[in-house]
Structure formats: C-alpha cells, structure tokens
Amino acid sequence: MAYGVPLAIIGLFCLQAVLGTGSAENNLKLKLFVKSSGEDTQSQSVYRDYPAYRSQFANVNTFAPEFFRTGYGNGLTSQAAFVEAINNRSTTWKAGVNPKRNDQYRPGVLSEESMKFQLPLGFVLMKDEQPLPASFDARQKWSYCPSMNMVRNQGCCDSSYAVAAVSTMTDRWCVHSEGKAQFNFGAFDVISCCHRCGFGCDGGVPNAVWHYWVENGITSGGAFGTHQGCQSYPFDVCKKSGEANNAPLCLRLCQPGYNVTYAEDKHYGRVAYTVPKDEERIMYEVFNFGPAQATFTMYTDFVQYKSGVYRHTFGVRVGTHSVKVMGWGVENNVKYWLCANSWGAQWGDDGFFKIVRGEDHLNFETNVVAGLPLFR
Ligand SMILES: *[C@@H]1O[C@H](CO)[C@@H](O)[C@H](O)[C@H]1NC(C)=O
Ligand SMILES: *[C@@H]1O[C@H](CO)[C@@H](O)[C@H](O)[C@H]1NC(C)=O
Known about the structure:
Layout: H1 5-12, E1 17-18, H2 23-28, E2 30-34, H3 50-56, H4 79-89, E3 93-95, H5 111-116, E4 122-126, E5 136-137, H6 138-141, H7 160-176, H8 188-193, H9 206-215, H10 262-265, E6 269-274, H11 279-289, E7 292-299, H12 300-303, E8 305-310, E9 317-331, E10 334-340, E11 352-356, E12 369-373
Parallel strand pairs: 8-11
Antiparallel strand pairs: 1-2, 2-4, 3-8, 5-9, 6-12, 7-9, 9-10, 10-11
The structure holds 2-acetamido-2-deoxy-beta-D-glucopyranose (2 copies).
C-alpha cells in the first residue's frame, strides 16, 4: 500500500512541525506534516538587478513568426500549417485556433528564480487510508464551491504565477470551510505589492506567492471590469502586439465603492508547502485538500490546445507557465491531470485542459505547491 511510505519519508526528513488542524482536516481525520525548511532559502539580492534580468527575457515577447516554428528546424509560416502539423503528429490531443491572437496567451513564471525559493515539503496523511479513485474532478466533490467552475483570465500580463495561486487559494478557502466561507482572492495585490513574488507582469515565483499569503495576506479581487472585491483584475487583451502591461503601483487601497479597507480585506494562509514530486502524493493532496498549483514548461503548441490529453509535440519553448490542477483521469489509456488554465473560458476546452500524468511531463509534477487557509 503506497501510503505506508510517507511515514518512512517523514522520519528521513526529520519533521519538526505538526500543524494544528482546521475543520476539514479534523472531519477527514487528516493531518498535514511539514518538513521545516530551517532557514529562509530566499536571498534578498535575487531580484536586485532587475533591468539586466528583464533583458534576458526580452526575446520571450517576440512570438510571431517564431511562434509557428516547429522546433525541428523547419519553419511554418502560418498558424493553420502549425495546427495541421501538430494534428498530423499528435495522437492524444487536438490542436485548433483559439480566439485570441497567440501572443495574447501569456505564461508568467521565472523558472530559475523559482528554484531558489523553496517551501517546506508538506505531506497529507490520513488515519484510515483509502485507495484513490481512477478519476477525480474537484468540481464534483466540492460542488458547493462555485469558484471551481470559473476560469480566470490573466490578460496581457505574464502573471500566471499569481493568478493560478490566487485561484487555488479561493477554491481552498471554500473547501476548508466546507462551503461556509467564500473569498475571491485577487491577483492585483500580488502583482502590485508583493515585490518578492516577482516582477509584476514580467513573471514571478509561485512559491513566493504562497509565502506572501501566509506572511502578508492577500486581498480580494474580481475579474477585469467587474469592480468586485478590493481590487478587480486590471488587464484584458494586449493593446500592442507582444508587449505585456506594466503592473499597477502598490497603493494598499481598495477600489472606490468597496466597503472594507485594504488591511481589513487581507485574508491569510496558515501554511504553504511544496507537494512531493510524486504522482500519488499530488493525487492525495488534491483529493483531500483541494486544487493545487502546478507549473510546467510551456511550448508554442500548448497555445493551440483544444481537447484531449496535451503532450508537447511541436514548437519552441515560450517560457514557464502556472495552472491549477483539479483532478485526474484516464482517456484512451493515457493518464492525465485535469487543470484550469488562466486564459479565459474561450481558450482550450472551455478554459480547462488535460495534460499527461505520471511522467513529470514538462516538469509538471516537480513544481506542485499548495497551502491551507487561516480561519480566525
Ligand atoms: C499533414 O499530413 C497530410 C497528410 O499526410 C500532409 O499532406 C500535410 O502536408 C501534412 N501537413 C503538415 C503541415 O505537416
Ligand atoms: C458595507 O458594509 C455594511 C456593513 O458591513 C454592509 O451591510 C453593506 O452591505 C456594505 N455595502 C456594500 C456596498 O458592500
């Protein structure tokens, strides 16, 4: 039985902390064990040389016609040919043309910086171990959490590090209050005020967003144009080709008409952790504690995803992207993770997608992070 393993792992890592439990954990007889990281592994100097750092990534913003390169030497000049080339080659998923121009579908993770910011490892343990189902969809298990059906839209901003994180926190706020509390965490606070999280609209570090949640809290925020929450999301489509917007300034204010102050609107996490790089550990985490944030290498073919189980087939690397993992299953004998993207509900499979599971495809299983909410 696979779940005997973590006890041994825990001994190995000299666990130092057993956290207090919230209501969902008590009811499920679950415990989260966190391996203490000892000291903060993040060096303050990491982000000091920002202009030089940013220039390294400048070429990431030039999509077309590079965007349709196959990665096999032969350039394709049109999107139609690129889509056809993917469909000729791919056996598990279908490519198509999504409604927005390709350079509007943006990633948002700084992969090198992310490796420097480590969170402790967190293991979900259960007293009465149950086998995991062959397929699972968080939207069905927690049908009282409406946020799980909503797909975010990061717009013209390389902010998936923040958007996928706050989307996951919103779901977990609902899950761990058993539907009694809903709080729509917004990315505005993260991209404008969390300077250790990254560079606003030029990418960032998912782990640092979870750390910010615990240390500083995060405010609420509705979608672009909604005027909901403390600060609604500030970006929609790109005005100029290829160029991300600049993140808003950190004002520590809620928008006019919102009744609660910025400080009062802050809602906090109790703990943030990395889920061990293991298919079953990730499944166990999502099954018991709700959606988690996953990060993977993004290639140009991912932008063309329409249906099926995505496996990188064609194209060149765009960057690193972050999404919300919500479940799993098997389709035509191919194991997949079920995920929500943050490119709006018109992209892909109504905003969702499936990606190959169990092979650490594009480092997907290496970079899963999560946390638990703090209810006062
Ligand atoms: C796709 O396959 C068809 C049929 O084999 C072929 O005619 C076409 O050139 C291929 N297209 C691309 C872009 O590779
Ligand atoms: C403002 O706050 C009061 C008291 O908490 C509440 O009853 C009211 O509905 C709020 N108004 C708005 C517009 O949110």
